[in-house]
UniProtKB/TrEMBL annotation, chain A:
Ranges of biased composition (kind: Acidic residues): 141-158
GO biological process: protein ubiquitination; ubiquitin-dependent protein catabolic process
SUPFAM superfamilies, alphabetized: POZ domain, Skp1 dimerisation domain-like
Name of the protein: E3 ubiquitin ligase complex SCF subunit
Comp. bias regions, Basic and acidic residues: 79-93
TrEMBL record, chain B:
Segments forming domain F-box: 9-45
Organism field: Jimgerdemannia flammicorona
InterPro entries assigned: F-box-like_dom_sf, F-box_dom, LRR_dom_sf
Designated name of the protein: F-box domain-containing protein
């Protein structure tokens, strides 16, 4: 039985991080896990590297004592984004790390961090060409199995939905 | 937080959409979104969803200027269709605010999809031995359902009937019936293509178009029934659409059988069939091309019932008495030409070439087409100006080559 005051996270390579549960009260994934499987020893966070998880936990620690209501959705229009000087470290990180943090924030379901990283990505994308964006964030190249033929996909999307 | 709808280690679509939303608020707005669309296939998918849900145009006019071929090929290969993306998004309960208001339905394909038929598609890829046929639209009908459900209030509905028989039409109508509440705000309806064999005149079935029209008479502004064959119930439903200001009844077939085409009975039925126009006081544009020759009472009735009518497009009828028509037209022009601003007589008006008289009574504005025929257009224009006092207000007149008979008869009368 794990200590209810602390939570242990295990990254993809087996590295463990033990942090107070209160740090992660904005992570819906962790909250759901605590409710359903809180009696287990450690929570596995696959697809997240130790470096990135450390960064995410730093963010959570900085914002652990924030009293604002947790966001339900990063795109919540009722709560406009406000830059927080405590997050400057996240804004200054290299492009590839920013991408990884965005994905980690999505995996852990922390809307505040998603909003921060998405905002930063948007400001970096602004005014760039497709090739520049590609060089910055290097989305994966097409994998063979992902290439669907038109035969399978059909035509309704064109005729059935879009009037150009 | 949205669930992740891609299982790969890439940014999920909903995060990309959120990034696009933020990008749009910065600097160049939409052009940055276009740049994002061309980054990779995932990003293009997100772009498709983004533009669809924000009411933007997928390919704006200058899209290709911003889209070099090699960049386009990067995202276009194996791309998903919007319908698939929406279907995926709904499957994972991703909440996408939908702002699109147009819906184009090809009934033949819908039904083919519902029945999982394999249809041969005409827009085929070329192969070594000519055209290679590809199989399309074996899509399950629930995807289409998801698609329509996303459009909360359809404002424009296009239905293509070409190659559909009445039975299939009914089947498709059954499918559409569940979405009638989505069509309540309909402003434009376009129904094109004849049913195979026409709508059976002695049937107890309610014409599906009647059903759609009956639900949407209050907001309907534009109607386009090209090559459409209706019945009495459609006519009655049309009469209730009093706000129509633009009507295209191209190749409108009011008559069921050719053998009564221009008998007294035929004319009577034709006159009855265009009665909906009498109930459209706001009508400004009427396209009546390739319908039967309208007779004098029809034209007369039309202008009296529609005081705002400014644009009238007539055309060569497939049946009818040409002489009588020209007589009617002459009377019509003399009586009402002062009100009509655009009169399209392409194929009807027997002159040597197309002319455009922008200001009758003033200088003839030569357009590029007229420039090619500098020798004769002035003469023809002058004859129109001098010979047709009724044309004083006509600003745009379209005529095209034909036999000279009608022109001469018109000219000789003045």
């Amino acid at each position: 039985m794990s200590d209810p005051a602390n939570i242990t996270l295990v990254t993809m390579d087996g590295t463990t991080f033990t942090v107070p549960s209160a740090y992660l009260h904005r992570s819906k994934l962790v909250q759901d896990w605590l409710r359903s499987e809180g009696d287990k020893q450690a929570m596995e966070v696959k697809h997240v590297t130790p470096f990135v998880l450390q960064g995410v936990l730093n963010f959570c620690e900085i914002h652990a004592e924030d009293t604002s209501e947790p966001l339900a959705d990063p795109a919540d229009p009722t709560k406009p984004f406000e830059a927080d000087p405590r997050d400057d470290a996240f804004r200054g990180m290299p492009d590839d790390q920013l991408l990884q943090f965005t994905m980690a924030a999505d995996i852990l379901q922390i809307p505040e961090l998603v909003r921060l990283t998405a905002q930063e990505m948007a400001s970096r994308i602004d005014g760039k060409s497709p090739d520049q964006i590609r060089a910055m964030f290097n989305p994966d190249d097409l994998a063979e199995e992902d290439v669907d033929s038109d035969n399978e996909m059909g035509e309704v999307g064109e005729e059935g939905a879009i009037s150009k | 937080m949205f669930p992740t709808i891609t299982n790969r280690c890439r940014l999920p679509l909903e995060i990309l959409i959120e990034i696009f939303r933020l990008v749009e608020q910065l600097g160049n707005g939409y052009y940055d979104i276009l740049a994002c669309a061309l980054v990779s296939r995932d990003w293009y998918h997100a772009y498709l969803l983004f533009v669809a849900t924000h009411g933007l145009c997928i390919e704006p006019a200058d899209f290709w200027e911003h889209c070099p071929e090699q960049v386009w090929s990067r995202v276009s290969q194996g791309r998903w269709r919007l319908a698939n993306l929406l279907f995926e998004a709904r499957r994972y309960n991703v909440d996408i605010p939908w702002k699109k208001e147009e819906l184009t339905l090809n009934l033949r394909r819908i039904v083919a999809g519902a029945r999982r038929y394999d249809l041969l598609h005409r827009r085929s890829r070329k192969s070594d031995n000519g055209l290679k046929k590809t199989l399309v639209n074996t899509r399950p009908v629930q995807e289409l359902t998801a698609l329509i459900q996303n459009i909360v209030s359809v404002k424009q509905l296009d239905i293509k009937l070409k190659g559909v028989d009445p039975e299939v039409f009914n089947e498709a109508a059954d499918f559409l019936r569940q979405f009638l509440h989505n069509f309540r705000c309909l402003q434009t309806i376009t129904i094109t293509g004849p049913l195979i064999g026409g709508w059976p005149s002695e049937t107890a079935m309610v014409h599906p178009v009647t059903e759609i029209l009956n639900n949407n008479t209050t907001n309907l502004r534009k109607i386009n029934l090209t090559e459409f064959i209706g019945d009495k119930t459609v006519t009655e439903a049309l009469r209730r659409c009093t706000k129509i200001h633009t009507a295209t009844l191209y190749e409108w077939d009011g008559l069921d059988k050719e053998d009564i085409a221009y008998t007294t009975e035929g004319i009577l039925r034709l006159e009855n069939n265009i009665t909906p126009m009498r109930f459209w006081p706001n009508l400004r544009m009427l396209d009546f091309r390739h319908s039967k020759y309208p007779t004098s009472p029809i034209l007369d009735d039309l202008v009296r019932s529609c005081p705002l009518l400014e644009e009238l497009r007539l055309g060569p009828g497939v049946k009818g008495d040409e002489e009588e028509f020209h007589e009617s037209l002459y009377n019509f022009v003399v009586a009402f030409g002062s009100r009509i601003k655009c009169l399209d007589l392409v194929g009807l008006w027997p002159v040597q070439m197309r002319l455009e008289l922008r200001t009758v009574g003033g200088e003839l504005a030569k357009d590029a087409f007229a420039e090619d025929f500098p020798r004769s257009d002035n003469g023809v224009a002058a004859r129109y100006r001098e010979g047709l006092p009724g044309f004083v207000a006509v600003q745009r007149l379209f005529v095209v080559e034909g036999e000279s008979r009608g022109m001469e008869s018109l000219y000789s009368r003045t």
